Amino acid sequence: MAKRDPNKTARNKLDKEISERLNELWPTVAKDTGVQNLHSFNALIGGKAATFIDLKNEVISSHEEYLSHYLKGFARAIAEDGWTAGGASFGSETLKHNKKLFLKSAATKEYFTLFLKRSYLRHYEELVRNRPAIQDAEVWIGQNNSDYGLLITPRYKNGTWENDKSEIRHFKHLYWTIGHILATGLVVDGDPDPMPFANIDEYLNSFQKVLVRPSGSAYERQIAKLYAEYVKAQEKPEEVPLLIPELRYNGKDKKHKFRLDFCIINPITLNKVGIELSPWSTHGKLAGTKGKTQQQINDDDLPPKFHPAATRAPAVLNTPSGAVGAT
């Protein structure tokens, strides 16, 4: 049986206590405001959270901070008619009316504050962790004509794959981990059918034989083998960060030049670490060179990351702690 998380247990206990207090306050709140429907009044508070707070990007570490963001957004939406942090917009007159209701009495003020505190507790896990920016919420891997996408909340729309941006913060797994890829699978742009993995063994098998093997590097294959053994040996393998092979710097762009042998994204900090076994000539293998001049080999056969142009345009992974370059 899985161990209970004491922090989650404490939050649930506090949630229950707040709910009991809200129920005690409600008769007085209904009388003071004239709003007789509990759910309607709650919607006046909770239904505006996405309007006042940038829930897709803000990382909020406490209920006090949550309340502060809410009140600042509330004030701005009143001052700037129609302003929104990302949710539905509301007219300033409507919001002024709501504000009067919330400040009607000591009971309404307490109810308003406690309701927001409970909202934070109920969404704690999705609000407190770092979430990738929209542009960083997908990675594309693999060689030209053999590329795959790893998204967080993939959906197929208008012939292409994209993230459902509103659901990224609700993603239940640690980002960029074994559990992540088991939940989403991989996708091929232009193909509406994703590539699912039924279990860890199935993914690791594909990782070694489909994703890494085409590189032609014996060293990359050995690293992949050791990684697979490491994952299987862990108590919670689904929480192991992915060893992302052949990261494409230009994403899914067809005109693709540069790739990184491996990349690891920290699921907590979202910092990126790039691994490049350079130069490619030390660990790669060229085939079909018979009958070609050296110039033809250079032009036609060298992998993109070994092309002379790569020395003029090195790619860099920017991280909060600095930059990691690929040579």
UniProtKB/TrEMBL annotation:
Task: Report a single Gene Ontology molecular function.
Answer: isomerase activity
| Highest taxon in the source lineage | Bacteria
Ranges for the region named Disordered are 307-327
The protein's UniProt keywords, in alphabetical order, are:
Isomerase
| Record-given protein name | Topoisomerase II
Source species, please? Answer: Sinorhizobium alkalisoli
What is the taxonomic lineage of the source species?
Bacteria, Pseudomonadati, Pseudomonadota, Alphaproteobacteria, Hyphomicrobiales
